[in-house]
Amino acid sequence: MSAQNSAGIQTLLEAEREAQKIVQKAREYRTKRVRDAKAEAQKEIEEYRKEKDEEFKKFQTVHSSGNKKAEEDAGKDAENKLAEIKEAGGKAGDKIVQDLLRVVMEVKPEVPDRVAAPPAA
pTM of the prediction? Predict the structure, then answer.
């Protein structure tokens, strides 16, 4: 009976070693799958980031070009207004200067209405 028990024990030990090998292979496979999944997720994240960066750059280009056009239009308007002002100054400039000088040089002192007249003595 001892030989039979010994053979049974050996069979159990072999089965346990085989089970340990299977468990070890399963752990290695799971670890490899986790690593692969991580790498795949990182790759997808990078692709998504590139896609969103491109969308943002397109958005920026579209909206900043509108700003540049608005700036150019505002600059042209300012130049046109400045030209109009210079032209008006050139046409009526002498008259304006003469009117200013006349008003400054011809002083007409007047008593304002709100100041009461001195009482008659």
Answer: 0.43
